[in-house]
């Protein structure tokens, strides 16, 4: 099976621009969507390139590139909302009635929101950190503070500090990774998206909105998630501290929680073999 970048890349023309994606696995297999996180230089391929071959053995896998991260065409609106709409456009265009979802960080929030608002479309949900509110830990977390500092005034040293907060094993932050992320993070579309999500101004605006709005936060609706859900977390996650898992683990009716030791925010990378085995068992459910 060819699971290389060139061998799997595809693009889909929609009424709101091109959605680019990667595809692997046999046609007859159940569909699995991989939804990426956010942050400097992130995209779907970089999040899940190491896992695509494993999951394509049992599923027809699509890595979807969200609008605004330098790969798919950007669209107007907040990135989390436009990402969810893009997933639905993608599924509709390819005739995918329902699918299992693995979402990393922001991708997990996107998956949760889809499961709440369109329960018939999501059959099983796996989240990797990111879902829920900070219960005991400071908010924003250390990792988000570093991300905010980079977003306000990007430079390479700030990128390195932020990447270091993403992992337990600092040796994973290689010169190659730093260069790859630096080049991608300076893409104009990616910088615009980052400013909307993580700048100091965006954080201040969000706090004012929360103080004045009567709209409930998404995590207060987690009891509406109907599909079986696996919450995965790194015990040493400094971006989404593990106490965030407490509320979704309690509110989602059919939820299980798996915490990986000596692991940071990138569970699918840092605890690759254990993560893949755990998720495979859950998806086979």
Entry summary:
With 285 residues, this protein is α/β, with parallel strands linked by helices.
Describe the SSE topology.
Blueprint: H1 5-8, E1 9-14, E2 17-24, E3 30-35, H2 44-48, H3 52-55, E4 59-64, H4 79-93, E5 99-104, H5 106-117, E6 122-128, H6 142-152, H7 156-165, H8 175-185, H9 188-198, H10 200-212, E7 229-234, H11 246-251, E8 255-260, H12 267-270, H13 272-284
Parallel strand pairs: 3-4, 3-5, 5-6, 6-7, 7-8
Antiparallel strand pairs: 1-2, 2-4
Task: Write a structural description.
It comes from Gordonia hirsuta DSM 44140 = NBRC 16056. GO terms for molecular function: hydrolase activity. Keywords: Hydrolase. The protein has 13 helices and eight strands. The chain is of the alpha/beta class. It has one domain (5-137, 218-284): Alpha/Beta hydrolase fold, catalytic domain (Rossmann fold). An eight-stranded mixed β-sheet has the order 1-2-4-3-5-6-7-8, sandwiched between helices.
């Amino acid at each position: 099976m060819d699971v290389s970048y060139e061998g799997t890349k595809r693009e889909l023309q929609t009424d709101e621009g091109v959605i680019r994606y990667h595809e692997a696995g046999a046609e007859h297999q159940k569909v699995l969507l991989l939804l990426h996180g956010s942050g400097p230089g992130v995209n779907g391929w970089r999040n899940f390139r190491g896992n695509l071959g494993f999951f394509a053995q049992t599923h027809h896998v699509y890595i979807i590139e969200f609008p605004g991260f330098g790969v798919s065409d950007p669209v107007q609106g907040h990135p989390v909302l436009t990402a969810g709409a893009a997933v639905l456009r993608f599924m509709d265009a390819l005739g995918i009635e329902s699918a299992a979802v693995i979402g990393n960080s922001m991708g997990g929030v996107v998956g949760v929101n889809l499961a709440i608002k369109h329960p018939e479309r999501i059959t099983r949900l796996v989240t990797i950190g990111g879902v829920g509110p900070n219960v005991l830990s400071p908010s924003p977390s250390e990792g988000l503070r570093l991300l905010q500092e980079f977003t306000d005034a990007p430079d390479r040293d700030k990128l390195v500090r932020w990447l270091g907060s993403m992992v337990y094993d600092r040796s994973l932050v290689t010169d190659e990774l730093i260069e790859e992320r630096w080049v991608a993070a300076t893409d104009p579309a990616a910088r615009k998206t980052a400013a909307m999500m993580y700048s100091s101004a965006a954080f201040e605006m969000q706090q004012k909105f929360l103080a004045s709005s009567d709209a409930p936060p998404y995590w207060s609706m987690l009891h509406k998630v109907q599909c079986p859900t696996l919450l995965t977390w790194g015990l040493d996650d400094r971006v989404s501290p593990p106490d965030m898992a407490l509320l979704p683990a309690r509110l989602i009716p059919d939820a299980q929680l798996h915490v990986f030791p000596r692991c940071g925010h990138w569970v699918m990378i840092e605890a690759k073999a254990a993560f893949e085995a755990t998720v495979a068992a859950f998806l086979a459910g």
